[in-house]
Amino acid sequence: MLLVAIIGLVMTAVAVALAARRALWLYRLAMAGQPAPERVAYAKDNAGAELKAQLVEVFGQRKLLKWTASGTAHFFVMWAFFILLTVYIEAYGALIQGGITGTPDFHIPLIGTWAVLGFLQDFIAAAALLGLVAFAVIRAKNSPKTLGRDSRFSGSHLGGAWLVLIMIFNVIWTMFLYRGAAINTGAFPYEGGAFVSEATAALLRPLGAGANQALEHVGLLLHIGVMLIFLVIVLNSKHLHIFTAPLNVLFSRRPDGNGAAQPMRSAGKLLDFEEADPDTDVFGRGKIEDTTWKGFLDFYTCTECGRCQSQCPAWNTDKPLSPKMLILDQRDHAFKIAPYLMASESERENLPEDVLALAGKPLVGEDGVIHPDVLWSCTNCGACVEQCPVDIEHIDHILDMRRYQVMIESSFPSEAGVMLKNLENKGNPWGMSEMKRAEWIEELDFEVPMVEDKMPEDAEYLFWVGCAGALEDRAKKTTKAVAELLHIAGVKFAVLGPMEACTGDPARRLGMEFVFSMLAQQNIETLNDAGVKKIVATCPHCFNTLANEYPQLGGQYEVVHHTQLLAHLVEEGKLTPITPIDEKITYHDPCFLGRHNKVYAQPRDIMAKVPGVRTQEMHRCKDRGFCCGAGGARMWMEERIGKRINTERVDEALTTDPDRVSTACPFCLVMLGDAISEKKNAGEAKESLEVVDVAQLLIRSIKGEPAPTP
Predict the structure, then answer these.
(1) Which of 281, 283, 486, 642 could make an SS bond with 266 (beta carbons 3.0 to 4.6 A apart)?
(2) Most distant CA pair in the chain: distance in Å?
(3) Using alpha carbons only, what angle is made at residue 592 by residues 386 and 379, rounded to the nearest 5 degrees?
(4) Distance between CA 78 and CA 87 in Å, rounded?
């Protein structure tokens, strides 16, 4: 037994040394990136919320369990890692005690002979074994060889995944071999409960005492050896997430990875555009070392599961963007260039030519790590962030690369340049006169107060109309409906009219942070001078920017979306829908209202209160809703690759055979409306079909108006 102990401890020392070396290498590589002090500060200041996140996201597997079959399998395999640590404590205890006394009958103090623990160990191991079978079936069924691009594993490192499944299987069968033999030699700490180990013992018992003693020693070394090899493999594979996932969840953005875009930082400090110098400061991400250590942690933590890819509207319409591959391509590049990143200036001179060549490779470019078509396909919809089980923040990566391309390289789709010029010169993406912002008021039969210097004393809300709501004909219908509903409900409000400018969302999501900052500061000054406290907005992009991003620049307001306010007014009885609307309606969740701000219930609550309305959900809805294609400034970019995203969404809507498609966003209204018009022209949709805002449905029912003609 002494020899067994020596072999086991030597194996352990070698494996731990290799693992420690790899862990140190990974740490040094991450620290070669930019600092992110705000992540550490938030985690420290919000320990309670972070503890809850660990319990819910890591131990509770909340996101994974949304995918029932694979999520359940992963739940048991993950918990096997935790619970079977007690088996390894027992194994090492037996190894050391056996080496000292010659009798490997170790048990964990206090709980080591408790039959419940023996049962739990065997149960979770057996459940993990079934989980491995489920994983194998899922991977075989969804093989890229069979499904091609439609497989969520397309692009993943498949060989490594199968190797890990085999290694987990080896952990389980060596455990039962060792424990079964230990029962027969009398060195097992449990008198009952360990039902699989006892069944294994019954199979081994006919071999005799000598054979069982030998199998106990061999099984013990195999069980420990497999774990040590597995440890080294994990630290060199995608299954590194076993160790990094809790850290990535800990330092991820709270309360939600969507919502606000993050402000620009250089060396961990907020960038001041009046003093920033592109020659010395970091403007977005132009090379891999511009990534923060949190970004590197994202690289390490990606499990290559492809859930982000399967939900991405760009990938689902045959565009080159895969959120998974965006992370993996950066990770692979980081690993290849790591010797350069971690070397001193003098050491870099002696590096191999292939490593030095990578130092000059652009992060984004035709020959770069990320192709420009990948970068500009993103709609910022947030589906990738929402679905990622380990809280990778794909949008942050994309925005940082866009910022460098736009602000330093001046490289972006040409049509977006027109939008930026319009924002700078006219304060709206279409370049229309600011005086047109109030023209919709003339079409109403009641007075809408307009802010001159200060908010009217009796006005509770500032109605933020938004560029689309004021200037786009289809969106103006929503604006007028909301204004009329607030008037009927007795809610006092005012508008800024020509004083209102674009919130800057299109500029920020494009990557032009400077224009966003200029517009935001202008609007914040206007709002503060007017004494605005509460805002209602019809555009989810305006809503998100005002509520979540303006506080970054000192603009603190109570902001609600119009569906939230209208639902509240209906609930209070201040708005009462009476006239039945006998129509079948399917609702489209705007990304910046739903995933980015978790407003799913209120639009549906409004429709539920309208008599006669029959709602039918699309297959992809709520947190799995499908984008209209307008976010991420794509409203002002041509869609030249693959199928149009708005067409894909309307195709899905048509499967419900609706009389109306409803939504709660002017961008969605325009995008879906355009796609419906195309379908009508092709004879693929009924002529009466149109897309409307939920506010339009509500005002129809309240006023008893007939259905509008498309």
Answers:
(1) 281
(2) 99
(3) 75
(4) 15
363: CB partners within 8 A, 6+ apart: 285, 286, 287, 288, 290, 330, 333, 369, 370, 401, 404
CA distance 490 to 575: 9
Whether 36 contacts 250, CB under 8 Å: no
pLDDT in tens, 563-597: 999 999 999 999 999 999 999 999 999 999 999 99
Q: Is beta strand 614-615 parallel, antiparallel or unpaired with respect to 690-693?
A: unpaired
Q: Kindly report the length of the chain.
A: 710
Question: Whole-prediction pTM value?
Answer: 0.94
Please work out, in degrees rounded to the nearest 5, the angle formed at the alpha carbon of residue 141 by the alpha carbons of 138 and 147.
Answer: 125
pLDDT confidence tier of residue 445, bands split at 50, 70 and 90:
very high
Amino acid at 636: W
Name the token pair of 51.
């503890």
Give the three-state DSSP class for 495: strand
SS3 639: coil
Say which amino acid occupies 608: A
Q: Identify the pLDDT of residue 709.
A: 62
* Neighbouring residues of 336: CB distance < 8 A, sequence distance ≥ 6: 355, 358
C-alpha triplet 272, 274, 278: angle, nearest 5°: 75
> What one-letter code names the amino acid at 216?
E
Which of 641, 649, 642, 598 lies closest to 620 in space, CA to CA? 649
Cα-Cα-Cα-Cα dihedral sign, residues 85, 90, 96, 99: negative
- With a CB cutoff of 8 Å and minimum separation 6, the contacts of 33 are 288, 289, 290, 291, 292, 293, 295, 296
